[in-house]
Target: xanthine dehydrogenase
Amino acid sequence: MGSSAASADLVFFVNGKKNVVQNPEPELTLLQYLRSDLQLTGTKLGCGEGGCGACTVMVSFHSPDSDTTQHYSANACLLPLCSLHGMAVTTVEGIGSLRTRVHPVQERIAAAHGSQCGFCTPGFVMSMYTLLRNSPTPSDEQLDTVFEGNLCRCTGYRPILDAYRPFTKGGGCPLGAECCQNKNKTGVQNGHPPSNGVPVENGAVPNDTDELNGSSENGTKHTGVSYDPSQEPIFPPYLKLEGPTLHTQSLVFVGQRVRWYRPVSLAELLDIKKHNPDCKIVVGNTEIGVEVKFKKQQYPVLVTTTHIQELTSVQRLQSGIQLGASVTLATMDAALKDAIKELPEDKFRVFAAFVEMLRWFAGHQVRNVAAVGGNIMTASPISDLNPLLLACGATLTLVSTEGKQREVKMDHTFFKGYRQTAVLPNEILLSVLIPFSQKNEYFLGYKQANRKEDDISVVNAGMRVVLDDTAKVLDLSLAFGGMGPTTVMATTTMKQLQGLTWNEELLNKACELLTSDLPLDPGSPGGTTEYRRSLTVSFFFKFYLTVKQKLQQQAKPPVAAVRSSDRVATQPLERGPVKGFQWFEVSPESLSPNSALRLPVVHESAFKQATGEAQYTNDIAPRQGELYLGLVQSKKARAKLVRVDPSAALAMPGVVDYLSHTDVPGSNIWGLLEKDEEIFASKEVVHQGQVIGAILADTLANAQRAAQAVVVEYDVMEPIITIADAIQKKSFYPLNLLVSNGNVEEALSRAECVLEGELHVEAQEHFYLEPMVTIGYPTEDGGMELACSTQSIAFIQSAVAGALGLPFNKVKVRARRLGGAFGGKETRPAMHALPVAVAANKHNCPVRCTLERDEDMLMTGTRHPYLGKYRIGFSSAGKILAYDVKYYLNAGCALDMSYQVSEKSLIDSDQSYNIPNVRAEAHLCKTNIPSNTAFRGFGAPQANAIMETALTQVACHLNMAPDKLREMNLYKEGDVTFFKTVLTQCNLRRCWDDVKAQSKFEQRRKEVDLFNSENRWRKRGIAVTPTKFGMGFFDKFLNQGAALVNIYTDGTVLISHGGIEMGQGLHTKIMQVASQVLDVPLSKIQVDETMTNVLPNTTATAASVSSDLHGAAAVDACNTLKQRLKPIQAEHPDYTWEQTIAAAYFEKVVSLSASGFYKPPGVGYNLKTGEGLPYLYFTFGSACSVVEVDCLTGDHQVISTDIVMDVGKSLSPAIDIGQIEGGFIQGYGLLMLEQYKVQGDGNLLTRGPGSYKIPAVGNIPQSFNVTLLRESGTTKAVYSSKGIGEPPMLLASSVLCAVYDAVRAARIDEGLNPFVPLNTPATPARIRMACSDRFTRLYEGAEKKSGKTHWFVDL
Model:
């Protein structure tokens, strides 16, 4: 097997069709093959590292030994194509289609409003489909955990879970008897009389609402949710028949750079290892795949060990369970669970700890393919399994290339250094033996991560103790991950605690010993060293209490009982099934007979998205001669370019050209307000990730590989990275702004109380699931057409015209739909679209650039980090008299939209509160990070967090209930804002009162206080927060919308408008308003993609006003057509719609095309003069959240969230509710979870889902209830509706303030000042250290005293 001869063809099935690939390329993944070779584009590339689930497929294989077929989900982006020999792959296209039949799994997620932008939807579909193939009636627990490897940025997850709840054994709503389906439709829902409302529970609507929930796009009806497993495709008979041959074939595949081996015996494996001593063993490719793709590692020889019996067997021996090294984590989990069912409790304690740890290890897609041996041999210092293996003393069996076997016990000597083990270079790990536990032996594992599901550990631990009958320690093992370059054992502590009795004295000594036993340098990789050290003693305290409780169960307990207030420390933060209700009303106003207005229709593309048939930019099929662009990005944050040498890259296979600033025919400078960015860096780079040049090649892989080979020499200069750096060095854009009202200084001087404070709000990555893509097509007239994933086609058009030196009318830009955007695709797509245009223009051929997730995150910017410094004056009764705030924005290396973001913060600095004296300043810091840009909410979420923190501080100072303080300062009808706008139709107080009633706030407050009085180490908090969000652009010219409506002679309607569909349901709402005006069903209406050559000069789709602007423009156009048709309808009242249109065209010769235009009256504001109207109206809302905090780890969970939102008279209630839930969860990510990490030299650490964690399914409130305010409306927007995309983000402050409330309770227990600011995101580290106690005080201040540079900085 040491030879290089290639073996038989690769044979596998995709969607029931046989695929034979001759000598496949070992570097090719299944995802690349599906999308490029088979043009099956339903499976998406979201991250490329197995962290988002967008590429989920089902893999099936038939076991000849057991004669059973097994199915498992996997990430196609990591799955090597070569690993699929003899297997069957099913993609989203293979289970159902709009052209054939829609599978119940696809139908449910679409019909239940579980798909918004839709880019993640095929992944969710395939995860659920795989679950049903294995468990046709899964349990609630299976449903709630199956999506741990899938991410969604849009929906907030609730509708996805609700969509699939009917498939479970319970088969229905988690509300049980309280479900609306079990009540009289005229009954009362949570105190709200439905009036003529339509209560929607778990995605279902009552049957008398025109079967709305059973209608798909274009009115096509889809009914039924039942799942019949007997109707599923059978496993390919060919593979079942040939399986014994295919699975026993030794394979060798030879590629350009890599050779792939698949031995089928241990002897073959050892022979390959002998001839290729540096070969890499690969099972699931979950580690190696990431190293190759993102760390640019190259492994010339890969050997897969998935077909070697000795490495894939599971055996129960006398001493424990032996797992082959290639046994997957999923198989390991199943084997241990089987043993737990059969063994007595004192014998399976070790196994139980492993099962609990595996519960939080990655997602199903990774656990299904990753091997236990890979986890050991990778030797990651934060491995979740290695601390358990060390603590239990697992035994490894190793075999050398000479066939000699030896056993090695995993102990403190096993890990020799970073990624180094005691396994010799000529040895292979054969198996691992996990021992049974014994009587009086106690074993537990602990893990703390920023996100519970699918996140790497901050610190983890395995703890084992053996006691005698008097509770004296006979043996103790304490192993920790995340405390150094290897998994470590606290050997001194282990030794010195032996012989001691398991009591308080032992605990105190253990804490003292662990402090010295586990040192951690303040500048250590990973950062948060004080927190990590505190976790070691917190974990031990939990272990101590748990063992003590176990000892209490004995007939004669040898130790004192655990205090009742301490018992909760041993219990995990448990989650049950997510439940909730969604309430809205249908307006009683007269609607057209065929109108869909105000009804909860399904998103117009939902079924296409669920079947994988919805086309995104990168799904467009390549044209003949199309080339691919790979970007050469700066590795430095600030440097002069000394030399750029592409010669090595140009010599690589498939490379066509290298492009730089010298190839730009027009201007190399671009920008929004200021032309301050270069297409290609010419002399200097000003941020890491900046584009220096680009490689043009025949494939994307060749282009990316060659781009890495371009040699760049830098003359590095000292960068300015943080706000603190900018303040110190006075690095600001000359646009510092000030707004004020009243006399702030006088008010502060007269106030009874004045407090000062500051809050840092960190960056937030957009993390749209669809990375940026642009395809450029040269046109016959010397122009350029681009398909671009952008929110602003007009901006891209103008930027490309400038780069190519073309008039605007020769540049066309189009966008059909975006897989999420959130502001990040407004201006920043120009960074890759402009190089594409330059390349396509130079070579006169189509050129495509698809950013990898790490490239996207490295260059495109984020939400602006803020530092808010405030002074707040108030009376002893709680009336806020003055608010003085300074905002420092980290704008980055270019101005982009920072001015507009700061404007939003300044005007919204009052938030929902009537404060007579306000002064707000904004300072834009110029730094060497990528230009920060627009993000959902602009600067309002940052201003909101700062204001709500200030109010929390005031409430603590006055010892006043925070809800009372907020309530007494709320705006009310007729109040005048500090920017001189009179509040009319102000429903803020109604939302506040309703959400308090809906959430039963007063009762919950008492329950929270009682819980906190009874528990020391677990605290709950509750908070209500409001939002007042203004709608409109300050720049008057942006407040305009356009639409073109065409009616065809068959009666169908095609609408083009100036907005971009990116999941927010804009197209659906446009269709609904058109159906109302024209009185035609949705089945007759379609919305076209957005194009600059159809509608010119379009405003970016942003600021939550696109439905207002383009919806009103569509109404205008439809009304024009309606007036043209009115004479015909009057003359022939009995005509059908189709007959009327035919008569209009053939008989009356009436134009059936009309353009519409709309501009809101009077909107436009000059911040410098304070003149004008900044907003047309306000959207109001309130939320109440209850949280529970583990004071020992800083972990938290959201028990419940209730939201009442004033959306006026909703155009599309289901879509608005989806926006509310999704916006709230995204706001939760900003404030509580998403930690963006940059080092002091500008190096970005968080470049993908492996390191940057957005909310997952386990982060959403366990009870999530949304009500659209009753009897609301505004006369100022289309059909009395209101914009809704951004306001719900601000309601996530209810979670932050609830955590403040819980932390306050913990600090009061310790006799501390109840208030401490929580910089956001309020990660477990920040929450834990805020809950100061005897454990944290062992380490507090160590980082500051050291004076050492932290691993990452606050931007």
Summary: DSSP finds 38 helices and 50 strands in the chain. The longest helix spans residues 1106-1131. The radius of gyration is 31 Å. Confidence is low (pLDDT under 50) at residues 181-223.
